[in-house]
Amino acid sequence: MIQNLIDGVLTGAYLSLGAIGLTLVMHILRFANFSHAELLSLGAYAALVCDALVSALVPVFAAKLGPLSLTWALTAAIAASMVLTGVSAVLIDRLVFKRLRDKGQELSMVFASFGMALVIRNLIGLIFGLSPQLYSKDIAFAVLLSQDPLILVKPDQVFVLIAALVLMMILHLVLSRTTFGYSLRAVAENPALAQVNGVNLSRTIMAVWVIGGGLAAVAGVFYGLSHQIIPVMGRDLVLPIFAAAIVGGIGSVYGAVLGGFVVGIAGNLALVILPSGYTPSVPFLLILAVLIIRPYGLFGEARA
C-alpha cells in the first residue's frame, strides 16, 4: 500500500506538468485540446534526438549525473526539447486553431484537435518506428528505503519529483508576481476588456502555448525516464491528463497540480484491489465523480 502511494506521488508529478498546459489552454481559449497529450510525445522524442546529437558532438557530456541515469547531454536536451515543443505548439495554433478561432468555430477546434493528435502520433511513428525507446539502456536499480513495509525508490523518480516541484514553483512565481501573470488572468476573464486596457492578446495566447508546450515536453521526458517512450504514449496519457485538469478545476493551475497527484495516487492505489488491466478506467471514474459532486472541480469556478 505504501509503495503504491509513493509510486502514485511520483506518477502525479509528470501528470501535473501535463495538466497545467492543458488547463491553461482550456481556460484561455475555451476549447478542449485533445492533441495536448501528443505534445508530451513530441517533447520526449525531441529530447531523445537532442540527447543523441549532444552526446555525439560533445562526448564528455555523455557522463552520468551521479546515481541518476540522466547525463549532462540529456539535461541539455530537456531544455532544447522545451523550446522545440513550445515553438511546435505555437505553429500548430497558427496553422490550425487560430484559423478556426478567428471564424468563431469553437466546436470545430475540438474536432481539429483530434485530427492533430492523429497527425502528430502517426508522424512520430513514421519517423521513429513503433518500437519502444529508452534514454538509457543501463539498468536503473532502486534504492531500498524500508524492508517492512517494503519501499523501493529509484533515484530518477526522486529527481523527477523534485524537478517537477521546482518547475511548478517557478510557474507560480511567474503567474503571481509578474505583469504577465496579471495579463493572463485578465485575458482569461474578459479578452475584449483586457485588450482595451493594453494587453496584447496575440502575444498572451502565444505565451500560453509556449508554456504549455514546454511543460508538456518536460512531462514527456519524465514519463520516459520512469517508463519508456513510444509513439502512442500520448494516447495513453490523454485521459489521465484530462482527468487531472477536470478534477482540479478548469483554469486553475493549482487545481491541475493537485488533480495530477490525485489521479496518479488513485491509479496506483487501484492496483491494490483491481487487476492492472482495469486501472485505465480510474481517471474516467474520477471525472464522473467530480462532475457529479462538484462540476467545476476542486478549485474551479462557474463561468458565464
Brief summary:
The chain is 71% helix and 3% strand. By secondary structure, it is mainly α.
Helix fraction bin = over 70%
Characterize the main sheet: 2 strands, antiparallel
How many helices in DSSP terms? 11
Number of strands: 2
Structural class, from secondary structure content? mainly alpha
Alpha-carbon distance between the termini?
A: 42 Å
If you had to describe this structure to a student in words, what would you say it looks like?
The protein has 304 residues and is mainly alpha-helical. It has one domain. The chain has eleven helices and two strands. The protein has helices spanning 2-29, 36-57, 72-102, 106-128, 155-177, 179-189, 191-196, 201-226, 233-248, 253-269, 281-293; strands at 143-147, 150-153. Strands 1-2 form a two-stranded antiparallel sheet. A hairpin with a 2-residue loop joins strand 1 and strand 2 (150-153). The N and C termini lie far apart (42 Å).
Q: Which features would summarize this protein structure in a list?
A:
single chain; 304 residues; mainly alpha; two-stranded antiparallel ribbon; 71% helix; globular
Furnish the topology, listing elements before pairings.
Blueprint: H1 2-29, H2 36-57, H3 72-102, H4 106-128, E1 143-147, E2 150-153, H5 155-177, H6 179-189, H7 191-196, H8 201-226, H9 233-248, H10 253-269, H11 281-293
Antiparallel strand pairs: 1-2
Helix pairs in contact: 1-5, 1-8, 1-9, 1-10, 2-3, 2-4, 2-8, 2-9, 3-4, 3-8, 5-6, 5-8, 9-10, 9-11
